[in-house]
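ok so I'm stuck.
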Amino acid sequence: MRQVEVAVIGTGWCGGIRAETLSRSALVDKLHICEIRSERLEEVKELTNPASATLDYNDIVNNPDIEVVYISTTPEQTHYPIAKACLAAGKHVLLEKPLAIELSEADELIALSKAQGVKFTIGYSQRFNSKIAYAKKSIAEGKLGNVVNVMVSRHLSRNLGKKIANRVKLSPVAMESTHDLDFVFWLLAPAKPVKVYSQGAYGYMKDLNGSYDCMWSTVTMSDGTLVVVGGGWNLPPSYPNYCGTWIEITGTEGALILDDTSRDNWLNTVKDGTQYPMSTMPGEQVDHAFAGQMGPETLHFLEAVLLDGPVMVDPDHARMVMETYSAADVSAEIGDPVDLPMSNMALAKLADMKGN
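replied:
not stuck anymore, here's the structure
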């Protein structure tokens, strides 16, 4: 198999994971990295020994030898312009969620990727969680019969919630439940969401940026399946970036309960008390092994390019997820269900909310 030149734009937490993963892969001929913080750029250079390191993403865009780009930048408003530039340059792109801030931006990126004939996907790494993969397999094999209900409850520590909420004015449903909406819609395909009703509750986060502490959304699917997704980021400070998730799937012929709360890895020390190692959503490098989802996801996209195979997350699917969490935000604001696709009235309300 041939090798390819790859770049990572934005080498913070997630981008750093992707850069380190790619630096270890025999599929990568040369790795290039871009980061606007010079001190972080030096740190990642030490970890990955890249062929080039730059503070300007245009150096990546304008390098014709780079075929594949991973965009892991923050704040999230940077996703659209950087992805647009990379796609227009004919590069294959994996973009961290969210796909964009505006639905019109998402539509433009998807259309551009198709016009350029390049692979384009969104980083919904939970599909690489072995428990989620098992749920997909079980449903596909008919073990549960017809799925009647899916419930997902995901909560993060406030350490991470504060970090996210302070950099971007997006809600818990847009920043956290988006992962769950993605994989649930994937599990239930070809059914699609047709209605969403959402509520939020204020608490610790309100004084920081006006955000809800948690949001719960009820989604009705086109085949009648009921989906309930809850996401919050106000757990007391705990192991760095802790994430705990509980999933229940019931069907006419069976049920599947998935405990993804990371309580099976419990470290208790005199210095730091109780900790839950390997409990972050993207995962982490543990010596020679990667514990979690983002490492395998990073390599899967590279293999999809080299083998000309399908990407794991189709961008049109990611756009459907984006419209759903946008409708959930509107629903929480007006106190009523919102139909999908969103009406002009709902879209106008969403625009007003963003304007405020």
